Amino acid sequence: MQLKALFRKHAGSDIYVVGTGPSSRLFPTDFFDDKIAIGLNQAYRRFNLTYTITVHPELEIEYRELHSAKKVATKKTQWIVKRKAPNKLPLHDATRYVFNTSYEWSQFAGGPTDTLFLGKSVCPTAIDMAIRMGAKNVILVGVDMAEMGGDHHATDQHVQFHGLPANDVYLEYRLWAYKARELAREKAKVNVLSLTPLLGCGGEIHKQDYVKLRAELRLDKLPDPLDISKYDRPAIDLP
Fold this sequence. Notes:
By secondary structure, this protein is an alpha/beta fold. It has a single domain (3-216), classed as sialyltransferase cstii, chain A. It has helices at residues 57-68, 123-133, 166-188, 203-216; strands at residues 14-18, 36-40, 51-54, 78-82, 97-102, 115-117, 137-141, 191-195. Strands 6-5-4-3-2-1-7-8 form an 8-stranded parallel sheet, sandwiched between helices. Helix 3 links the parallel strand 7 and strand 8. Helix 2 runs parallel beside helix 3. The two termini are 30 Å apart.
């Protein structure tokens, strides 16, 4: 299905962008059942989501296998997938929404086209998608862009840091998300906000409360993630 079919579909709505950061495991699993939510990558493993967006088509294949084997308890989610080489999906694919990508900021918060902005992480892409859907407010959940209490995700997942230190990668994520938030406000008059179950205001305060709340909820520390990157990068990219 062509992406432009979603243009203004949820005009005036609050749209949640749900990441896989550690704080998302502190939310009730039914939290998004009655909300319009775009999950990033493997957020479907915890929540019922209206949409899931990814630049890694292999994740949709993994999801369909897990769902078919009933290893995923959540309901079906509509996938929004990058048209990626070598097996480029057709834009008119009947089972998923397919998009082209651009690294040009001029494409961010654009019109009803089949091209989304792609930054360093899929978060700016999801914000772009929500704006095109007509969001009044984009509310980020679990888009932590940091480790907390030694956890990097809400579930036991791999990472792709391409030889860079984790803190450098998270800084890169934040810088590109800051730019997307600024442009969402300036170009589209859309607020980008963050919803968190953690008390206090960021940094070590949030990390300390994450460990406390993880213990209260009887959640174990997750194993260190496996980096499955296929190549290394010398440094982060600035937006």
